[in-house]
Amino acid sequence: MFGGEESMLPDLDSLSLFVRAAELGNLTRAAESSFITVPAASRRLSLLEHQFKTQLFERHSRGLQLTAAGERLLALAREVIAQVHYLRSEMSNYGQGKQRVLRIQGNTSAMAQFLPRDIALFQAKYNDIRIVLEESWSEDAVRKLRRHEADIAIVVEGCAVDGLWTRPYRRDLLAAVLSECDPLQGAAIAFEELLDRDLVGLEGGSTLTRLLTSQASAMMRPMPLRVQVRSFEAVCRAVEAGLGVGILPIAAAGGFCNAMRLKVIPLTDSWAMRRMLMCLRSQPDPDSDLGMLVMHLEALAGADDGDD
Fold first, then answer.
1. Is residue 221 part of a domain?
2. pLDDT recorded at residue 266
3. Does 285 share its domain with 191?
4. Is residue 97 part of a domain?
5. pLDDT band at 98, cuts 50/70/90?
């Protein structure tokens, strides 16, 4: 029926149509969203099944239902499409006439406090260099650096950076975030005093949650996490709603205080002052774009230390 087409690789348009059909569960709607006719869409899906030599859908009067093979292809196809979009994004950096591109992975704390401003200052001096800045958990940032998906990773000290070239960056201080009406008062507070309260924290993959959990364990106390969320703002929203006490970098939490009627009390624990690192695969040439960026960030970090 399909002649020599069975030996061909599946094309991106067919995979995209397959994903739409799987998500919508309806061939007509998938065809409409792909701007093709229903017969053409049906033929594309049949060709995919022919190429993979397996049935991808159960076809019923109520619509399409994925088979086990279809479920697996859906997961893989989404990854392929995401990688193609990433490829296009990367190439568009060069297509805009800027042949010099630096890709930076910044951990959540740095992104919420000072990294965007620091990068903007560099960009103002070197506007012929295109900066691509992306937020990640520290471990994810290091992983992308090792896979050559980034040129530099800004991480919180404590994650595995063996084999990488590192330099100190800025620091942040952790603090308790409470509702404005909370009876707890004081200029500072020890972490242990919060362990009898419900805590609101980031999801378990975050460096901050692992740090707090390990410190609670060292005190022979359980970590009383009641709520886990994905962002600093979500922590503050949960605190505002009365679900518990949050622990965040003080500068990041401060940005939400007035709008959400919160108060911030610094932690007294020595480990609450965290250092950040710039990580690269190797030491850059100081005259290279990457080398100039490292020196720029080092200078700002030095000025930050000098303020203490």
1. yes
2. 96
3. no
4. no
5. low
